[in-house]
Design goal:
InterPro entries: Probable_transposase_24 (IPR004252). The protein has 133 residues and is mostly helical. The chain has five helices and no strands.
Length: 133
């Protein structure tokens, strides 16, 4: 992570290109079409999973700092992340705007717990079609 970007959208296109190049160093694709498809999927995945990545890093930092206060996790970021980048994220999380948004999200998720349950498992296309009728 080259800069303290609290959201995937906050990365500039050039930085996303550099990060994708790192991905390509570990993965090989047969054609330019496959590479373009991989880029599309990679972008969507990063957009979707980036908050989860930061949340896991935050939770590990809480454990390492033996605290529940965001202010106490400065300097306790992932080993692969520069300290100034981690501390930049911590400053973002300490901002009252982020705190208010976080609390509102917690309340919304707690208000309707049934909406976040996915107990149906995998359903085939045929089953979806039958249920639609």
């Amino acid at each position: 992570m080259p800069s303290p970007a609290p959201r995937w959208q906050d990365y500039c296109p050039n930085m996303k290109d550099e990060l994708f190049k790192g991905f390509l160093e570990k993965h090989e694709f047969a054609s330019n079409y496959d590479k373009a498809m991989a880029r599309t999927v990679w972008n969507k995945t990063m957009h979707d999973r980036y908050p989860d990545i930061l949340k896991r890093a935050r939770n590990r930092a809480f454990k390492e700092a033996n605290s529940t206060s965001i202010a106490d996790i400065k300097g306790h970021g992932p080993k692969a992340m520069k300290v100034d980048v981690w501390n930049g994220l911590v400053y973002h999380w300490l901002d009252s705007k982020w705190q208010n948004k976080s609390v509102a999200g917690q309340k919304n998720r707690a208000a309707m717990p049934a909406h976040k349950l996915h107990t149906a498992g995998s359903i085939s296309f045929g089953e979806h079609k039958r249920r639609k009728v």
